[in-house]
Amino acid sequence: MKTAIALMERRLLPDALVRMGIRRLLRQRLDTERQQGAARQRFIESLRCSPVALHSETANTQHYEVPPAFFQTIMGQHMKYSAGYWPDGVETLDQAEAAMLALSCERARLADGQHILELGCGWGSLSLWMAEHYPNARIVAVSNSRLQREFIMARCAERELNNLSVLTADMNDFSID
Predict the structure, then answer these.
(1) Helical H runs in the chain?
(2) Which of 117, 131, 142, 160 minimizes the number of CB atoms within 10 Å of its CB?
(3) Distance CA 53, CA 31 (A)
(4) Which of 77, 116, 117, 119 lies closest to 100, judged by CA?
(5) How is the chain split into domains, by residue range?
């Protein structure tokens, strides 16, 4: 191939031969793209037929049904599972959680008055944040844990939040009706 390209660049190959080579390369490329596209479609179809969550009962037992007191010991005040945001001036875990919650809402372009669905709400860090910062929003959070739901609803009662409801559901069977 390198030799053919070198000859072509020095204009030592007839135009008809160059065109034939280009057509051959284009056919090969199109065949490759078709094969990859078909493989991609098979993968997408397999995802459509797959459950949303695997082994959810085992996960519940091992992780989600652990008492809230354990997580209150190891997390910040917002009970945020995932990363905090540590811009300049943020020095504590509580501040980093709050900064990340605010950034998440900003990136999602949330606004007061919206109807918001949060799937997999954990201990309610984002749900409770949204309920407090968007008092006219209607928020529905979904957890697969009864303990998490009870914890979030207790926090709602403490804070007098009435714009947040929590559903307990297995995402494999979840449907909004």
Answers:
(1) 2-9, 15-48, 56-59, 68-74, 93-107, 125-133, 146-159
(2) 160
(3) 35
(4) 77
(5) 2-48, 68-168
Residues 6 or more apart whose CB falls under 8 angstroms from that of 151 comprise 68, 123, 124
pTM: 0.70
At the fourth CATH level, which superfamily is domain 68-168? Answer: Vaccinia Virus protein VP39 (3.40.50.150)
Angle, helix 146-159 to helix 125-133, in steps of 10 degrees: 30
**Per-residue pLDDT tens for 45-104?**
888 888 777 776 776 666 667 788 888 898 999 999 888 999 999 999 999 999 999 999
Helix boundaries (H) for 85-161: 93-107, 125-133, 146-159
CA pair distance 94, 126, nearest whole angstrom: 13
Instruction: Please provide the average confidence, as pLDDT, over all residues in the chain.
Output: 90
